[in-house]
Design goal:
The chain has 313 residues and is α/β, with parallel strands linked by helices. The protein has one domain: Isochorismatase-like (Rossmann fold). Helices cover 26% and strands 18% of the residues. The chain is built from seven helices and eight strands, in the order βββαβααβαβααβαβ. The strands form two sheets. It has a six-stranded parallel β-sheet. Strands 1-2 form a two-stranded antiparallel sheet. The longest helix is centred in the N-terminal third of the chain and has 24 residues. It is globular and about 50 Å long.
């Protein structure tokens, strides 16, 4: 994804958005019919040959029909701002398209789970937050659902494709310095300035708001959710590792996919393998497709032709 056009040489070094959840909204009606199964096209990289130097893969796309009532979208850490200037710009780019996908999915009957970590205070009285807290404790509560999941066995088969040891911020040093100064002037912690989810993503009463792995697991089990689409940032960090992230959900047996066009990595092209930021994100997605779970496009959820992909789940 290319950086957003900021308009000539003029820069704004702080991005803040009021939480849209403070306004109670009513979703649009799904013309295709609520609860009609919808198709997803899962892209996976499967091994085809192994040489002394590397393992070779090929892309395989399989179709499934998912039942909306058994499906959830987890929106990971789409914060109102970020410590990295370029990361904020890319979230601003992604958010409108993501909201379009969420609106369509919600109208079909898919559960939307907004998970802006460490930002629960603005939503404490919101019905969507209360719904997460009120879900009964699942009988099969995983013992480690409350902690980050750093690795699963399938990862041992591959080499991680990018170096993120510097934190992945790729901002120009001058821009980054001004952004940090702006955050400080606003009374934000420049290392962790997020306070809410970006307001472009609309939150409705019937949604769920939580950053707790246990709460999100309780809601999924209460509703019989088996299919989970993960969207948000950052692909190589929170999207994978959070208690409600890809690793944990795959490990616990959910039918998980990543929406590869609705995510972004924290990667600095000044670090190995010295490719563009866009290519760095693609490498992480390819690695996920090889070792964790398939990916889909958000387009699957905005051009729905019920019953067109495969058996319903």
């Amino acid at each position: 994804m290319s950086p957003m056009n900021m308009g000539g040489s003029m820069h704004r070094f702080i991005f803040l958005f009021a939480p849209a959840s403070l306004i109670l909204l009513t979703p649009a009606v799904n013309a295709a019919g609520k609860d009609s199964p919808f198709p997803v096209h899962k892209q996976t990289s499967v091994p085809v040959a192994t040489t002394e130097k590397e393992q070779q893969f090929k892309l395989v796309i399989t179709g499934e029909n998912w039942t909306p009532a058994k499906t959830a979208i987890v929106v990971c850490d789409m914060w109102d701002t970020h410590h990295c200037y370029n990361a904020v710009k890319r979230v601003v780019e992604i958010a409108p398209r993501m909201n379009e996908v969420l609106e369509k999915s919600r109208a079909m009957g898919v559960l939307i789970i907004h998970a802006p970590s460490s930002c629960m205070e603005p939503y404490k009285d919101h019905p969507a937050r209360q719904r997460a807290k009120a879900a009964p404790t699942a009988k099969n509560m995983p013992k480690d659902i409350g902690v980050w999941c750093h690795r699963i066995p399938s990862e041992e088969k591959g080499t991680y494709p990018i170096d993120q040891s510097d934190g992945g911020c790729d901002s120009d040093p001058i821009d980054q310095k001004k952004h940090r100064e702006s955050l400080i002037k606003l009374g934000r912690n420049p290392d962790a300035p997020w306070k809410s989810q970006i307001a472009v993503l609309k939150i409705y009463d019937q949604n769920v708001i939580s950053d707790s792995g246990a709460e999100i697991w309780n809601v999924m089990e209460q509703r019989g959710i088996t299919n989970v689409i993960v969207v948000g940032v950052h692909t190589n960090m929170c999207v994978l590792g959070r208690p409600f992230g890809i690793r944990q959900l795959v490990k616990l047996g959910k039918n998980v996919v990543l929406a590869r066009d609705l995510t972004d990595a924290m990667y600095d092209p000044r670090q190995p393998p010295f490719v563009s930021h866009t290519r760095g994100t693609e490498l992480v997605v390819e690695h996920i497709e090889k070792h964790w779970c398939p990916s889909i496009l958000g387009e699957d959820l905005t051009r729905v032709v019920p019953g067109s992909a495969g058996p319903a789940e």
